[in-house]
């Protein structure tokens, strides 16, 4: 077995050593970071999700696969760097209240950082108040929220309310994303922007701040 298939299999199995080695050989063989992510790592997590839905995998295995993917992401992080860039804007990012999924959020943070944004990552299970407090404290340009559970999506709307209550809603742009989040939902809760994946999150962030 070779290439992305071996990488995907290793992530599904939670075999960190093999997955990291496969990621390294894909990098060495000149594969693009986008392909490593889409065809290797994200493809693996999609399969993990399917196996979980059909009862072939359980939370501990899902966690092990997540840990494996995070280790592979550490390896490709430097490849996102676009070189010496002028600071593009301050972004406060986090996964919303009661949601512990952070792989997609980390990917978005990593790509934004690589594109020159200054990132303050609040982690997971971030309360609306915490988002608002930090955004106010650092004078953020963008508040970026990730949700992976349909049950935690309402926390995005609560966070927008918290930004209003903190008196900074007109000073920050709000971006939302995550697998169950849609463009319509973003419009409904009056977010400024929605992005389906990490690459478009960078483009949307640039658009929001009128950066080319
Ligand atoms: Co959970 N989980 N999980 N899980 N998990 C999902 C999300 C699920 C779809 C699996 C399934 O049933 N098929 C399902 C959600 C169903 C729903 O509500 N729609 C689910 C469930 C049910 C649960 C639990 C409730 C399970 C349980 O305990 N019974 C539980 C909830 C815990 C909690 O959060 N309170 C749970 C727990 C976990 C683990 C902790 C074990 C682990 C997470 C570990 C971690 O993140 N450190 C986990 C995992 C790994 C998954 C799956 C398998 C993979 C998620 C992932 O990392 N994908 C997932 C199934 C799936 O997604 N296929 C599943 C890869 C990642 C790169 O993609 O995060 O979508 P994603 O990010 C994308 C885009 O969405 C976008 O960019 C990224 C790609 O470029 N994006 C943004 C993300 N954030 C963005 C923000 C933006 C813009 C774009 O702007 C700000």
Entry keywords:
212 residues, alpha/beta, five-stranded parallel beta sheet, 9 helices, 10% strand, globular, binds CO-5-methoxybenzimidazolylcobamide
Walkthrough of the structure:
- With 212 residues, the chain is of the alpha/beta class.
- Helix content is 54%, strand content 10%.
- It has nine helices and five strands, in the order ααααβαβαβαβαβα.
- It has a five-stranded parallel β-sheet, sandwiched between helices.
- Strand 3 (142-146), helix 7 (154-165) and strand 4 form a beta-alpha-beta unit.
- The longest helix is centred in the N-terminal third of the chain and has 21 residues, at 33-53.
- The mean pLDDT is 93.
- It binds CO-5-methoxybenzimidazolylcobamide.
- CO-5-methoxybenzimidazolylcobamide is lined by residues 42, 45-46, 48-49, 52-53, 59, 62-63, 66, 98-105, 107-108, 144-146, 148-151, 175-180, 195, 197-198, 201.
Summarize the entry for a quick read.
The chain is of the alpha/beta class and 212 residues long. It contains 9 helices and 5 strands.
**Spans with pLDDT under 50 lasting ≥5 residues?**
none
Query: Which small-molecule ligands are present, each listed once?
Result: CO-5-methoxybenzimidazolylcobamide
Strand content: 5-15%
Provide the gyration radius in Å.
17 Å
User: What oligomeric assembly is this protein in?
Assistant: single chain
The helix tally amounts to 9
Largest sheet: 5 strands, parallel
Question: What is the topology, as strand order, of the major beta sheet?
Answer: 2-1-3-4-5
Structural class: alpha/beta
User: What is the H-and-E element order?
Assistant: HHHHEHEHEHEHEH
Residues in helix, %: 40-55%
What is the overall silhouette?
globular
Terminal Cα separation, in Å?
42 Å
Number of strands: 5
Task: Output mean pLDDT.
Answer: 93
